[in-house]
């Protein structure tokens, strides 16, 4: 059985981990490897290497950093298919979806290639007679990234690209469920020319996470995962004096107004709800049917579900792969089996005829779902769409705004006035207008509101640059020594 380990300074840690966890092929439902789970002592060893490397890397010229990131971008493009295959093997998503994940991660590396421009400071000349003030951005030091299983390449690149380009050392703790892509990223980083110790990968579970959150030489923490864990990471990290951005869960709504193109809305609901088997933090979970569009919309979605081919991600005909584990599959299925008991109608039961092998679950559609039902209140993270019916636009906005999550939302309409009003009135961090999955491009930033984000700092893009740097303000005067005097008064500008 292959053992997947850690990668530090271009090599594996010499001491093997005492604990391991299974790694599965979700499409076959069988264990294919085991992953080492780092101890607190091993985490400390990795952090020391990162701390030692951070000083020299932070002093490296912006030109050299940019050149290395240009090389990294080319290496990622050259190995895009290899990375996608590793994602599909351990996560299960179909190859086209995996390739798209890698492509979106590469966008963040492309953004980081502009680091000389992104780190330009500011200068105010002659703020007082002979006095100039300038502001510069410096790296925070050592950053830890704790990433989820559903995007084992894209999310690490969200963090790594900006953090390392800004001059920090970066310690990645990926999900133990699909650990191999992280080692491939580390090898490509090494090949691109990033010095030893600047980027490390330490595999692990809660013990490793707690060690990172409490280690005095970790200066900042970036996290993406569920809301309960995001809250824990934020509270624990900040209690230890760290800068923390922690992105949590979601309950993304797609509001469909009566004037919307019915076919386009149904296609979008299918794409946004069932893509990657619903294992996306930006997946559509709730379709809000406004007014009299409800019956037609439910019928249109239901009619499309039989056309979705569920199967192994490496088969060309598959459109949706398995869920990550058998336990998660059973949890997602329980939302469907319990829906009727709470008063919802099961229009399509995806658990009825799953493939015989693997952690598969078909697409499910629930109608008549309301707040207070488990299928509405909890994050499902699987291929289950819930339809909530409301009478008016105002009711739809009130429903969305009352939800404790505020990650993403979409509106489908042909009315430009309604769209402009919606984007102002909705209390959600990322809004799509006739776009079901509004993930921002790399030159903007990703982050929700309310229980979807702790720490107030979105990830990557301009907000990422701000998070991974700290400002230093320098006030200078070059006086004539002959005119120097003692002045105990508080300095004023004149």
Overview of this protein structure:
By secondary structure, the chain is an alpha/beta fold. It has two domains: 2-248 and 452-474, Aldehyde Dehydrogenase, Chain A, domain 1 (3-Layer(aba) Sandwich), CATH 3.40.605; 252-433, Aldehyde Dehydrogenase, Chain A, domain 2, CATH 3.40.309.10. 37% of the residues lie in helices and 22% in strands. The chain contains 16 helices and 21 strands. It has a seven-stranded mixed β-sheet with strand order 13-14-15-12-11-17-18, with helices on both faces. Helix 3 packs across helix 4. It is globular.
Provide the residue-averaged pLDDT: 96
* Strand numbers in spatial order across the main sheet: 13-14-15-12-11-17-18
Count structural domains: 2
Write down how many β-strands occur, each being a DSSP E stretch of 2 or more residues. Answer: 21
Which residues sit in consecutive blocks of at least 5 with pLDDT less than 50? none
Which percent range describes the beta-strand content? Answer: 15-25%
Question: What is the name of the CATH class of the largest domain?
Answer: Alpha Beta
Superfamily (CATH H level) name of the largest domain: Aldehyde Dehydrogenase, Chain A, domain 1
Query: Separation of termini?
Result: 74 Å
Radius of gyration: 25 Å
CATH fold-level label of the largest domain: Aldehyde Dehydrogenase, Chain A, domain 1
**How many helices in DSSP terms?**
16
Secondary-structure-derived class: alpha/beta
The biggest sheet, with number of strands, parallel, antiparallel or mixed sense and barrel status, is: 7 strands, mixed
Give the % helix.
Answer: 25-40%
Rough outline: globular
In the CATH hierarchy, the architecture of the largest domain is 3-Layer(aba) Sandwich
